[in-house]
Input
Amino acid sequence: MNARPDIERALRAAAPHALVETVREALRREYGALHVQLLLADYGMTVLKPVDPVEGPGDPLSMYNSAEGRAFGSQEPREQPLRHDEALDHHLPVTVRGERLGILTVRLPGERSTARTVDELTHVADLLGHEILVAERDTDLYHRARRVSRLTLAAEMQWQLLPARACTAAEYAIGAQLEPAYAIHGDNFDWSADTDELTVAVTNGMGEGIRASLLTNLAVNALRNARRAGIGIADQASLADQAIYGLHRGSVHVSTLLLHFDLATGRVGAVDAGSPQLWRLRGRTVTRIDLEAELPLGMFEESQYSVQEFQVVPGDRLLLVSDGVYEAASPLGELYGERALTRALLATRLLPAATVPRAVLRELAEYRDSETLDDALVLCIDWFGRS
Output
């Protein structure tokens, strides 16, 4: 069921900063909505924050013990009756191609809360998600709404560099997360797909703070520049290596893992240039995919890289992790290595790819049992294959 055409036209014509008020007025007019609220997931994926310049900022809602959070986690519309009132709150996921942005809550009189209406409101939430992604080019409103605290400058640079935190297609689903979300420096992920191929990159710039972020920005943009020229992943790595070495003359480097998926066959080409690790869950068996390690990008002049291959089959789950994950230490000094990663992969095997990285990072935080400024990156790929 589609949204009513006049609501769609109103959203597309709305000013970038006025999407919430536009949808609120439209839903009041068309459905008799008593209350309309947009909540966006924060950078750390722990709370949902209201976006509402008219009714005040409101309090963030937990992602884990609120009705809105449960709707966000399940990605299904949820109905919440109100005490001493016949009205109902409908919590509707706002999601774009697998990227979970937040929740649209619409309060309707009981007699207006029909299955047809919920279907139409679900489509309104989808439209709103697409319009938010376009509007973010021209307003900071939605960026500000995602923050529970100030981002460091290095983190600001890293989040602006990312493609999204999730993506779905017929052949695969991807989810990724960075921690500490508000103070990340050098870790980053990137992906791009077209009709027949998917390329995924995980990078980790050497150092801390803005220096690490600037280095990663250079590496990611060099890789993108080569990829968008139609160059294969081995030469992508070589050209990025030259760009980094040309500027820094070997004083710093970037660890990188590049994967290229043939969507028709499941053949994967890999370039392993540094510290990120690759793990596979097949059935209930967890194995590390051992690749021949090559030099990180930027260490030496004109390094050459080679592509190694392996096969994925429908049902496989791949997990890419940075050294901030597998080298994290418990209070007793034990590293979060093979045993812990195996346990985490098995424990999260029933979760969708979009939620796996956050679940693994929560388990990692419990394992460390202490605050850390080390970057940690987790990227999950579920492979469905092509029919």
